[in-house]
Amino acid sequence: MATTADISRGMIIKLDGSLYSVVEFGENKTARAAAKVWAKLKGVDNARSIEKTWNSGDSIHPVRVERKNYQFLYKDDSGYNFMDVETFEQFALQEAMIDAPQFLKDGQEVTMLINTETEQPMSVELPDKIVLLVTYSEPGLRGDTATRTLKPATVETGATVNVPLFVNEGEFIRVNTKTGEYVERVK
Predict the structure, then answer these.
(1) pLDDT in tens, 57-84
(2) What is the pTM for the complete model shown?
(3) Which CATH number fits domain 129-186: 1.10.1670.10, 3.40.50.10540, 2.40.50.140, 3.40.50.2300?
(4) Which of 24, 131, 153, 162 has its CA 20 to 30 A from that of 88?
């Protein structure tokens, strides 16, 4: 059994029958009272985000998670279909289990978190930054590069990303999948 001293960022714990990932944590110490450990938790099997406080030394229930590489194949009525790159086993997952489904493209490598107790997939994480082709964008005007003005652009997956005025249709851009923001133009 683990205690609050074992909490780390990214750890997945079982709390009230649900699974949560630790986003941030810390400890509050006062002169008179016992130390408290707090954590911001993001739901793995639900869409909730909560904050939880324990007394220092309380027991927690970590869940062992395995990270495996999968390849995105296609989307159909059953959901998003992924294939294990080692065993060629396929899974169909719902959109709620994927971090940024609007940036998924066919053949893309992703990381799937699998609960080792139940052997069931818990969530899918895309790489932090991916390269996408701009399929539609209004043309930028010459000389409009001095300000940090942004315009909407549609990328090959159908998602809309705000890009600087100098980015044109047919160019490749790097996008941050966590925030959905433009990072840089790729040559």
Answers:
(1) 899 999 888 889 999 999 999 899 999 9
(2) 0.72
(3) 2.40.50.140
(4) 131
